[in-house]
Amino acid sequence: MPSEMNALTNLLIFLGQFTYGFLEAIFYMIASKPKKNVAGEIVLITGAGSGIGRLLALRFARLGAILVLWDINPESNQETSKLTKEAGASRVYTYTCNCGEKQDIYRVADQVKKEVGDVTILINNAGVVTGKRFLEVPDECIEKAFDVNTKAHFWTYKAFLPAMIANNHGHLVCISSSAGLVGIYKLSDYCASKFAALGFAESILSELHAERKTGIKTTIVCPFFIKTGMFEGCTTENPLLLPILEPNYVADKIMNAVLTEQAYLFLPKFLYYMLFLKSFLPIKSGLALCDYMKVFDVMKYFKGQIKKD
Ligand SMILES: NC(=O)c1ccc[n+]([C@@H]2O[C@H](COP(=O)([O-])OP(=O)(O)OC[C@H]3O[C@@H](n4cnc5c(N)ncnc54)[C@H](O)[C@@H]3O)[C@@H](O)[C@H]2O)c1
Fold first, then answer.
1. 190 carries an active-site annotation
2. Could you say which of 106, 190, 249, 264 is catalytic?
3. Contact 262 CB / ligand 1 (< 6 Å)
4. Which terminus of the chain faces fewer neighbouring Cβ atoms within 10 Å, N or C?
5. Over the chain (309 residues), what is each successive 10-residue block's mean pLDDT?
6. Considering the entire predicted model, what is its pTM?
């Protein structure tokens, strides 16, 4: 009898939480979700020297956050630092770090803990792309893709998550990609590394939930192509459904997702439907749809990752 009572209690608790989750989501479709205050938070952004990393740094600067900027390129990182100070940041710390090297990450992370303090918002944003057919990708590029796009996330979490857990306070932001949701022609190493980054971030989300560390939030970001120069030359045949995104638009959306503690952000919205279609369409129909939408042509004119201001 007591075990039946327990099962009934558990079922009622589950139904209550499940329904609450839905009602809350519906409520916030109508009302805007309150935004958290990040003033005084220590925000670490990897790959802060250009593109999305720089735009996020500027936005956190305006909100009074303490900035820790990492990049492999010291000059562009210094430029970001200058811009963030002009935008109002009073405490900005720049570090040259090769996120493709575990020892470098641990070394710089120790320096950050001593010189700045415990990071409370960790944004793994640094990324590299090769953009070749699989058999043409040099082995070292495959290794680099995993080192920077995936393994760096493991090492930065190892460095900064313990303090977040101890304080039950923090936010982990994983910049994955639409290439972390579907496999794409000429992006085998990139896609695999972005799928892995997403899987890693989602696993930590589940660990934190299981351990009831409710004060540590996760945001996983999967955008389609952005005009930052990383995917220079890439095209879309479906600008209405899959437009090439403006960097400022993406940065605004990411900020909103972080401030409202949204777990997943796919850009544009069509990616949510694409993932749904992928989960049930027969493979032949799915591939026919990709052919029709010329999805396999997107990398046709790819020039390489270039730096844009
Ligand atoms: N641009 C796109 O179309 C697109 C689409 C989806 C996802 N993303 C992802 O968004 C993130 C930001 O990309 P972006 O478009 O701003 O690109 P970007 O090339 O403008 O910026 C990447 C930054 O990472 C830095 N970086 C590269 N290797 C590094 C390393 N080993 N250590 C430290 N820093 C390193 C670069 O110096 C650069 O400042 C990446 O993770 C990328 O994969 C980009």
1. yes
2. 190
3. no
4. N
5. 84 93 91 95 98 98 98 98 97 98 98 98 97 96 98 98 98 98 95 98 98 97 96 91 96 98 97 94 93 88 77
6. 0.96
Q: Is 105 in the pocket of ligand 1 (CB under 6 A)?
A: no
> What's the 156 CA to ligand 1 centre distance in angstroms?
16
Closest CA to 119 of 69, 72, 79, 77: 69
Is residue 88 left, alpha or beta, with left meaning phi > 0 and alpha meaning psi from -120 to 50? left
C-beta of 126 in contact with ligand 1 (< 6 A): yes
The minimum-distance atom of ligand 1 relative to the CA of 305 is 19
Phi then psi for 95, rounded to 5 degrees?
-135, 135
Q: Alpha-carbon distance 254 to 103, whole Å?
A: 29
CATH of domain 36-297: 3.40.50.720
| Predicted pLDDT of residue 308 | 66
Cα 213-258-235 angle, rounded to 5 deg: 130
CA gap 126, 13 in Å, rounded: 41
To test the ligand 1 pocket, which listed residue (230, 249, 301) has its Cβ within 8 A of the most ligand atoms?
230
The pLDDT, as a whole number, for residue 247 is: 97
pLDDT at residue 295, rounded to an integer: 86
Domain ranges across the chain: 36-297
- DSSP element (H, E) containing 61: helix 51-62
Ligand 1 centroid, distance to 229 Cα (angstroms): 9
